[in-house]
Fold DNA-binding protein.
Amino acid sequence: MAITTPNRSESTSMPGALLTPGEVAAMFRVDPKTVTRWAQAGKLSAVRTLGGHRRFHENEVRQLLTGVPQQRSDV
């Protein structure tokens, strides 16, 4: 019996999708270790997988992202 898992593009479009620290870091343009520190400090809630890895709720991350000022492209 084969177990199939959806690819990343399918899973991130589903409501309540979970993101890896790397994916969250790319959204905020920070290092993945920074995202881990945010989780340890309680600034961002994380879910642990059975393997002990952190995953972050996409909805929460997107809400936080809307509060982050965007980079200006003045040249």
